[in-house]
Amino acid sequence: MTTSEDQTGVSRADLLRGGLGLTAAVAAGSLLTGGTANASGEREHPNVRLIKDYYEAYGSGDLNRLRRFFANDIRWTIPGHHPLSGTKQGIDEVLAFFRELGKAGFRAETVFLAADGDWVVDLHRGWSTKPQGLDILWALAFRIRNRKIVEAVNFAADQHAADQYFWKTYKLAPLPTRLA
Fold first, then answer.
1. Strands 86-89 and 70-78
2. Which of 46, 74, 136, 160 lies deepest, with the highest CB count within 10 Å?
3. What is the 3-state secondary structure (H, E, C) of 23-51?
4. Per-residue pLDDT of the chain (180 residues; tens, 9 = 90+)
5. Can you give the residue ranges of the SnoaL-like domain (predicted)?
């Protein structure tokens, strides 16, 4: 193993590029740490099930279905320097963010989920369809309390590409309207 490879034999460059290298590393890491539910019938962590159900509701496009997953005081942090970045506080702000993502036809496909206590880590492919142009891996850290998402923090595999896409897709209103 070289110094640029982890214990799975995947190089840092493979991890940064994403794709099969990252998927293999995550799968290997899951085997080393016990992972979540698997083919041998291990019991699935209830918070992993909650996030799977959340993604099913998200995929339906019906934002009202998402409300039941969120605590009233939810905080959802979007990284970057673009019109949609920042921390959304409360259900209405989080749903407003998802409404904007819906305008760009965002989709998500889960690659990996694991839970430890109150936290669920999610790795997924996220891409836009209207307009096409962003297709990267994202990681989310979800904190769960009383079967509700109380916090989510996004991490983009390519923040520069995400910033460029969001600036191109979500134009700010001209001054002074923007400040109203």
1. antiparallel
2. 74
3. HHHHHHHHHHHCCCCCCCCCCCCHHHHHH
4. 444 444 334 343 444 444 433 433 344 344 333 444 445 567 899 999 999 999 999 989 899 999 999 999 999 999 999 999 999 999 999 999 999 988 888 889 999 999 999 999 999 999 999 888 899 999 999 999 999 999 999 999 999 999 999 999 988 888 877 764
5. 52-151
